[in-house]
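User: Hi! I'm working on a homework problem where we have to compare a predicted structure to a textbook description. Could you give me the structure for the chain below?
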Amino acid sequence: MGRDIGIDIMSDQKPRLTSSVVIVHDGKYLLAKRNKENYNGYWVFPGVVLILVKTLHDAAIREAKEETNLDIEIIKQIWL
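Assistant: Happy to help. Predicted structure tokens:
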């Protein structure tokens, strides 16, 4: 069972646009363990809060490289 992360969707925080990258190789998924103050110790897909980028596609490729040092190819985009 996962831990309750206690997200308050009605808080004063402004909405942020984020992008996560699901990297699959030989049927295995790459996860990163957070070491930042928020959600420290949680396993997550590599991702980024988007600030000023040309496209979500470019942001995903850049973030995968920064967090994993992998050069990836986007084969499918999923919009949630």
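For your comparison, note the following. The chain has a mean pLDDT of 75. The longest strand covers residues 18-20. Good luck with the assignment!
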